[in-house]
Structure formats: structure tokens, C-alpha cells
Design brief:
mainly alpha, 2 domains, 5 helices, 61% helix
Length: 92
């Protein structure tokens, strides 16, 4: 038993034990065991603008990653930085 559980059980007694029996510290285990149920419209919680924007931005960054790497290599390999491949052509 965790220290927090022991403290909460001492403080709240049966009310805490009732909550502990219908929940789980492992994500989704109480749902899989049938101790909790999802409401029929649970997906509405996930389809919100901030979540959609974060997911879209993450996917865009993932897809653009090769282009970002190519851009970084281009900048590093030009005369724009010391030691670049264009140093000899620019007379530096």
C-alpha cells in the first residue's frame, strides 16, 4: 500500500476505499476491468481545437523533418558559416 493511500484511508475511511475499488492507478485498467464505463460521447472530449492543433502540428513536424534536416545541412555546408564549402569561392 502506498503512503498516500494509507494517509487517505485514515483520513476518509470508507469513502476512500469506495473510490479506490472503482478506480486504478494504471491507465484504462478500471475501464477494461468493468469498474468504470466511458460515457457514449467520450470522443467529444478529444475533438477540441487545442488537441487537434497539437496533433496536426506534431504530424506536420514529423512529415517536414527531412526538409528541416536538408535545410540545416544546406546552411552548414555553405559559405554562410566558417568552414563552409563556399569559403574558397567567396575569397575568404
Amino acid at each position: 500500500m502506498w503512503h498516500g493511500d494509507r494517509r487517505l484511508e485514515a483520513e476518509h475511511g470508507d469513502a476512500f476505499r469506495a473510490v479506490k475499488e472503482r478506480t486504478s492507478v494504471w491507465p484504462f485498467l478500471a475501464i477494461l476491468d468493468g469498474r468504470q464505463t466511458l460515457p457514449p460521447d467520450y470522443y467529444k472530449e478529444l475533438v477540441r481545437a487545442p488537441y487537434v492543433l497539437i496533433a496536426a502540428g506534431t504530424l506536420a513536424a514529423y512529415k517536414a523533418h527531412p526538409y528541416m534536416q536538408a535545410g540545416a545541412a544546406l546552411v552548414r555546408n555553405t559559405g554562410l558559416v566558417p568552414g563552409g564549402v563556399l569559403d574558397g569561392l567567396l575569397g575568404e
